[in-house]
Design goal:
Length: 125
């Protein structure tokens, strides 16, 4: 369970990283559209797991590789923004957020189901 302190810190990191990605590294991922969907922070605030969504999905691997190559620069930019508010700038770990793709797969499964209509006089309870 995330503490209030972890939650506050993860929101701060998400906001600042989103701004960094939008302004400082925007051209690094073209033509992909990159969204930071969440941040989970370790209890000691030393490690931040950052979840990234990439559209189109064919660009996922290229974008994650680009992020990994620029990770130290991204952390440095984050440090400049939050350095006076925290003791240490957390180590950043980036992961693909595949929630949207999983939702689309489930939607396709539902579309493929053949559910017959209920018969008259029977109820589904």
């Amino acid at each position: 369970m995330e503490t209030k302190r972890q939650h506050k810190f993860s929101r701060l990191i998400l906001r600042d990283l989103a701004d960094i990605f939008q302004h400082d590294f925007r051209d690094s991922f073209t033509p992909a559209f990159v969204t930071l969907t969440g941040v989970e922070i370790s209890p000691d605030l030393s490690v931040a797991s950052v979840y990234v969504s990439v559209l189109p999905s064919q660009e996922k691997q290229r974008v994650i590789e680009a992020i990994e190559q620029k990770k130290s620069h991204i952390r440095g930019a984050l440090g400049k923004r939050i350095g006076k508010q925290v003791r240490i700038v957390p180590e950043l770990r980036f992961f693909l957020d595949e929630t949207q793709e999983q939702a689309e797969q489930i939607e396709e499964l539902f579309k493929g189901l053949d559910i017959p209509p209920a018969e008259e006089g029977t109820s589904r309870e």
